[in-house]
Amino acid sequence: FIQMLRSAKKRDVLQLLRRAPEGMLPFVVEAAVAAQSVASLAALSDFLDFSKEPTSLLEKFLYAAAFSPRPSGELLRLVLDKLDGKQLAPEVQETGIIAMGSLVGKLCQQKLCGLQQEVKSGVETILRGLRGAKEESKVVIYLLALGNTALPETIPPLLDHAEEGPAAVAAAAISALRRFPARHISSKVKRAMRRIFHEKRKSYEKTCRLAAAEILLDNEPSPMDVINILLAANELETEMATFLLLKVQNSLR
Prior knowledge:
With about 250 residues, the protein is mainly α. It is built from 15 helices and no strands. It has helices at about 1-5, 10-20, 25-35, 40-45, 55-65, 75-85, 90-110, 115-130, 135-150, 155-165, 165-175, 185-195, 205-220, 225-235, 240-250. α3 (about 25-35) runs parallel beside α5 (about 55-65) and α13 packs parallel to α15 (about 240-250). The chain is elongated and about 65 Å long. The model has no long low-confidence stretch (mean pLDDT about 90). One of its GO terms (biological process) is lipoprotein metabolic process. GO terms for molecular function: phospholipid transporter activity. It comes from Pelecanoides urinatrix (Common diving petrel). InterPro entries: Lipovitellin_superhlx_dom, MTTP, Vitellogenin_N. This is MTP protein.
């Protein structure tokens, strides 16, 4: 079916979308996203009205985009266009932000970062949203999207929120940092993780401290980091101490 859509003209894909029975429509939308031809994406652009379509169908489209294994810049542009400046249901907006981060990250994995204007627009949209977000839940969504991009230029805001944010925000920021490859876990990132784990500036939730310790142990840990984490484990709850001990043992193996 996807192969058929890849060779179809825009008007044929659009006609298929408009005539599909309600129960089949999500399947056709997913297939059109997977086809990623110029015609199928243009048909989706004409068909999907984010101010009218049911929330479930819009989320289906955004999830299909987010999970696309090798997305194109055109797919990211379609998502950006559909989300830009529109009043959307909160769940659609949140799914769209997460999808945007996922698409940016995958395009950069394909070495297309510098070639796609859409990538720059996607990152700027997420960062702008993060700066303007007032509610804690919205800040968390933008931080998760930044984690999906795994781009080094997003690390400074992630570090700021990891150290200074409230519990849920700090947890989301540290979780996002864990998704970055080892080459991006710099000495600056490690210093911040040490401060969080050893609670140098303020108290942190248990999950935040454990995630910070994992970043240190999973990214070429220094002997001193290992020693200090093991010494600190003596003062932690049994479950936390056991978890950290197992992490160190696994690293040794």
